[in-house]
Amino acid sequence: MPPRADVVVFTALGVESLAVREHLTGPLVEHEAGGALFEVGTFTGLHAEWRVACLETGEGNVAAAALFQRAVAEFRPRHVFFVGIAGGLKDVEPGDVVVARYVYDYERGKDTEDGFRARITTHLSTFALVQRAQAVARTPDWRKRITAPPPGGEPRVFVKPIAAGSKVVGHERSATARLLAEHCGDAVAVEMEGQGFLQAAYFNAGLEALVVRGISDRLSDKGEHNDRVWQPAASRHAAAFTFDVLSRLQPPEPRGHGLGRPVTDMRAISRAAEGQSTIGFGPDHTVVVVSGNGSVERWDLDSGEPLPGAPGGGDLRFGHQAVVSPFRHSVAVARRQSLDLLHFAGRSGEHRHCSVPLGGEEFLVAGGGDVLATHDRHRVALRGFDDGRILREVPCPSGLAAASISTDGSVVALATTNSVHVHRPGMPATEWPIRNRLEFLRPGCCVAVSPSGAYVACATFRELVVRRIADGSVVLRRDFSGQESRDGLGAKGMRLLCTDAGGVLWLRRGRLCQVTDSPEIRHLEQAGRYDDFAVHPDGGLLAAAGSQNLVRVWQWSG
């Protein structure tokens, strides 16, 4: 098990890493994860003692994004920072600190015969941390944490946009400098990692992320003196400011093994319809249940009050019976003869119905949200959520047992009794082995793709494995005991869910549990048996529909 860490601080260079480590008390503990070497120490703030993991990523946005995901999978931190140096574009001097309100990805664009046409995108730091940084910047107290006298005047703090790309911008009259002046005119600094860092943070709901940079030079004033004097000084100033921000944050809530605290009174709402149910979070802070006859029931999460739904009628198909979109007021219901799509006009009861014929052996695939999918054991059809039309098809391996897709359908995972096949557009299919005790019992195999498509989890009667899709590395492998294997035999309504942090929740025989590499599967507290469960796209809420006709929602810290 990795050591506990509530905070991860990333740096790109050794001089930046040294400045960060000066604020930690030791001994520092080394922890290796897939080749990445973390150092974990302690920092005592005003309100809490924090365990901080540090990682030197090397230069570049790609490295920052890739190692970000590894850190999240290992530590599940609450706060992440990228700390280091940057070049000043305007208004700033060497030694000043810039907190990135947002970061421009200045290299996005289209190269045409008439030249490069910029299509600049932005990535935001977390609002709460930006607010805290602004409060810290209003007083000079943070400077007391600087570990050596500044070589110039007292450093100032700017909470402003910065720009990030893969180039070292070496002169104020370079082509890149001119592009920045034209398209990123309010950016005060330029660096090489913040865009990849914040983009990775965007895909990991529940994390708070901030980029802090010390100015080591201006584009018009580069040289050996800056490297020798101002790079260490700028690194120290950025680290001092970062740890003063961290010192003022409130302590984290304890990470319990249960479901957390309930959300409002809607945790005990009676459902009108009977039968196996599917639950999901809708947009605009709503929760949706599709009952065993296809009726749709909705509730407001703030008040717990019911919202207009839609009546059911008729039997649903075996297997995965419904998909609730978290991004639109829409659900897909797999009936005996058709796939029914219901689109509500916001929170009102007015809705539009669309029906798509399904073959006798065609089933709904778990996952999706922007799109949905069906399979007939020969091919998976990715379909538009609006009208069910087929967008693309993926061939199925022989002996298909389970299938799952990412939110946007860009990742399709198909499991047989002893392998997992992963398909991504424009890339060759990947096959990974998985062990099973009973090769002929296909219902004992479950598969789940995380919402962003970063991870895939597969469970058999013998083991559960979670892999990072980008490189195929195993982030969790859990062998099952004999009793744990027997618990899955003949179980109905089994549901596996993989989070964007690589965590796993599993519904087995109506019991909701969390699977880790601990000796025992951790069963979460609950009342009665559950038909289905869902995690909110932001990662902070968990909902379950139970056999006692209740819909329950909890705060969830994973």
Give a concise summary.
Helices cover 15% and strands 40% of the residues. The chain has 558 residues and is mainly beta. It folds into two domains: 7-247, Nucleoside phosphorylase domain (Rossmann fold); 265-555, Methylamine Dehydrogenase, Chain H.
Description:
- This protein has two domains: 7-247, Rossmann fold (3-Layer(aba) Sandwich), CATH 3.40.50; 265-555, YVTN repeat-like/Quinoprotein amine dehydrogenase (Methylamine Dehydrogenase, Chain H, 7 Propeller), CATH 2.130.10.10.
- Helix content is 15%, strand content 40%.
- It contains seven helices and 41 strands.
- The relative contact order is 0.10.
Q: If you average the pLDDT, what whole number results?
A: 83
Strand content: 35-45%
The biggest sheet amounts to: 5 strands, mixed, barrel
CATH topology of the largest domain, anyone? Answer: Methylamine Dehydrogenase, Chain H
CATH architecture classification of the largest domain? 7 Propeller
Write the layout of secondary structure elements.
Layout: E1 7-11, H1 14-21, E2 25-33, E3 36-44, E4 49-56, H2 61-75, E5 79-88, E6 97-105, E7 109-112, E8 115-118, E9 121-124, H3 127-137, E10 157-164, H4 175-183, E11 189-191, H5 194-202, E12 208-218, H6 224-247, E13 269-270, E14 278-282, E15 286-290, E16 296-300, E17 306-310, E18 322-324, E19 330-334, E20 338-344, E21 351-357, E22 363-364, E23 366-367, E24 371-375, E25 379-384, E26 390-395, E27 402-405, E28 412-415, E29 419-423, E30 430-433, E31 446-449, E32 455-459, E33 463-468, E34 474-479, H7 482-487, E35 495-498, E36 504-508, E37 511-515, E38 522-523, E39 530-535, E40 541-546, E41 550-555
Parallel strand pairs: 1-4, 1-5, 5-12, 6-10, 10-11, 23-27
Antiparallel strand pairs: 2-3, 3-4, 5-11, 6-9, 6-12, 7-8, 13-41, 14-15, 15-16, 16-17, 18-19, 19-20, 20-21, 22-24, 24-25, 25-26, 27-28, 28-29, 29-30, 31-32, 32-33, 33-34, 35-36, 36-37, 37-38, 39-40, 40-41
Helix pairs in contact: 1-6, 2-5, 3-6
